[in-house]
Design a protein that fits this description.
By secondary structure, the protein is α+β, with helices and mostly antiparallel strands. The protein has a single domain (about 5-85), classed as Gcn5-related N-acetyltransferase (GNAT) (Aminopeptidase, 3-Layer(aba) Sandwich). It has two helices and five strands. It has helices spanning about 55-70, 80-85; strands spanning about 10, 15-20, 25-35, 40-45, 75. Strand 4 (about 40-45), helix 1 (about 55-70) and strand 5 (about 75) form a beta-alpha-beta unit. It is globular and about 35 Å long.
Length: about 90
Amino acid sequence: MSTAPANEVRHDESAQAFVLTVDGEDVLLRYRRPDDSHIDYYSTFTPTSLRGRGLARLVVDAGLQYAEQEQLEVIPSCSYVAKILERLGQA
């Protein structure tokens, strides 16, 4: 059982997703850009075999870091992203 470090999360702009590949399977944070100043994180997905390892948190952290760097306001349509923002005091 290997856990990939956060620096292996890649931003796939064409797919509008942050992706972490572990053991040949992808953990995803999907987004849409409703306008130039917002990013809507609407879905996280972790394959069943990879759940419970904190991998979804890695892709969400990468997405939030990207939003901060690009000065984008996050729309947390995904309940998991909303929960993370709440824990960080940003909800």
